[in-house]
Amino acid sequence: MPSPTSSSPLNVLVFGASLRADSINQKLAALAARVARESGAQVDLALMREFDAPFYDGDLEAAQGIPGGPTAFRDRLLACDAFVVSSPEYNASMPGTIKNLIDWTSRFRPQPFDGKHGLLMSASPSLAGGKGGLWSLRIPLEHLGSRVFPDMFSLAMAHKAFVDDGIADPALRARFEKNVQAFLSLAEAAKHYPCMKRAWVEFLGEPPGVGEDRVDPVPS
Ligand code: FNR
């Protein structure tokens, strides 16, 4: 069997889900990008600001279509095999900005999240590291067909956790790198040796029917 890494590398979109210039989540995302590059992946490191959008509004969508930020996000999502997002926790949940981006992006067909492998991480000054927000972020992503990696990484006391070249604590740094590498291994195996039969249907509560189903065609 040919080595997967000898053919096409894994394309990974990485971004921090914070608009703040000095975001600790963007910092963690940049570290994940570095680990991914060192592991042989091709990385697209993005900023949340590049995907800026007004609040989702059905009237705006009907009048003007989907705005430029979510369109750019869709394009970059479609160009990747996998994505890594480091998201802040706001009030024990995900920030409204990332939920808004997911909602706009979910309006495209085919469904851009469908089948993409995702790794979730967070950084927070708190002792829990923002993990609570990741459980909420997992819900819409899985609903939209993303394969969200079971292991998530949360960096606690993140305002004190960094040194210039990464996470200061060596044991924590090793755990972080292992988490990213484990995710990449799974995404790479799925890219090169797909074996899962799947079909995404967005379940909106109605019984199955042509008018109600939002279905993406199953790739042959
Ligand atoms: C927070 N923060 C926060 N942290 C946390 O661990 N759990 C939480 O529930 C919240 N809630 C919360 C709500 C709001 C509105 C703000 C603005 C902040 C603190 C948050 O983790 C901290 O500001 C991080 O620095 C935000 O991430 P970035 O922007 O640095 O990436």
Description:
There is one protein chain. By secondary structure, this protein is α/β, with parallel strands linked by helices. It is 38% helix and 17% strand. The chain contains 7 helices and 10 strands. Strands 1, 2, 3, 4, 5 and 6 form a 6-stranded parallel sheet that branches. Helix 4 links the parallel strand 3 (82-86) and strand 4. Helix 3 (68-78) crosses helix 4 (96-105). The chain is globular. Mean pLDDT is 92; it is low at 1-5. Residues 16, 18, 20, 23-25, 88-92, 124-126, 130 line the site of ligand FNR.
Unreliable residue runs: 1-5
Mean pLDDT: 92
The ordered string of helix (H) and strand (E) elements is: EHEHHEHEHEEHEEHEE
Strand element count: 10
Radius of gyration: 18 Å
Distance between the termini: 22 Å
Quaternary form? single chain
Estimated helix fraction: 25-40%
Bound molecules: ligand FNR
Q: What about the largest sheet?
A: 6 strands, parallel
Topology:
Elements: E1 11-16, H1 24-38, E2 42-47, H2 58-64, H3 68-78, E3 82-86, H4 96-105, E4 117-123, H5 131-143, E5 147-148, E6 153-155, H6 158-161, E7 162-163, E8 166-167, H7 170-192, E9 201-202, E10 214-215
Parallel strand pairs: 1-2, 1-3, 3-4, 4-5, 4-6
Antiparallel strand pairs: 7-8, 9-10
Helix pairs in contact: 3-4
